[in-house]
Amino acid sequence: TYTLALSEGFLETFGFEASEDSLSLEWWIDRVHPDDKPAIVDLRGEIESGEVSEFERLYRFRAADGTYSHVLSRGRVGTDSEDSPQVVGILIVLEHQIEYLARFHELVEHSVDTISLVQADGTVNYISPSIEQISGRDADTVIGTNILDYVHPEDREVVTEAFESLVDGWD
Question: Per the count of CB atoms within 10 A, which of 72, 110, 147, 155 is most buried?
Answer without folding.
Answer: 147
